[in-house]
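pinned: reference chain
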Amino acid sequence: MGSVCIIRSGFWPSFQNQALLADFKSLAAGVNYESRFNISELGTRTAGVIIPAGKTSLGVVYSYFGYSQFRRETAGLACGLRLSEKISAGIQVDYFSEKAAGEYGKRNTITCEAGLLLKPNERIIIGIHVFNPVPNSLRRSFLPSSLRAGAGIMLSEVLFAGAEMEMSSGENLILRNGFEYEAAKNLCLRGGFCSKNTSFSFGLGYSLRSIKLDLGFATHEKLGISSSVSMVFQIK
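pinned: its structure tokens
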């Protein structure tokens, strides 16, 4: 969906806007693998768990990127809470670790992120997310900050469309838009566009009882195609 992910409920979006965790009422676990430009050294492996706890839902996520000469590991602990019928909020604490061979050594960083979700009515949803609101003057090394805002609408019972914009430290404004269409029972088709690197994306999702499978592809104007595959197990 062009990386439109802070307004659409689901397992992985819940770690992009932690307010979405408040709508997750089932125990679930998922694994994901992303291959950037079909280069094994640029692969990312991710695993996560969501645990409902009364009015709150908790989430744990871990990700590994790289190879023997350079690797980046991230871990996050998230919490989402419904504040009212139309408002939800969430927060996540993140730990980042980078290690490179030779003189570059190792770098560890801790930060946080938070999200807010508004539902004016049954069809419209609005999301806001902020990452790393801590000033870099308090850090030994630079870590970019970002602010994302988006809105989505159910155009029909089977068609959802959404758009987002993102502002990040030292970057141009990024625009995203995407759609999800329920083509058949348990089968969804998705597509989108992201202004960064003029990227088009498309994919599909299929649900089989308590298992959900997702497959996605995204283009890059110069480097080619990235692909990702995901499997989520949900226990109602």
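why pinned: Residues 13-235 form a domain with the Porin fold (CATH 2.40.160.40). The chain has one domain: 13-235.
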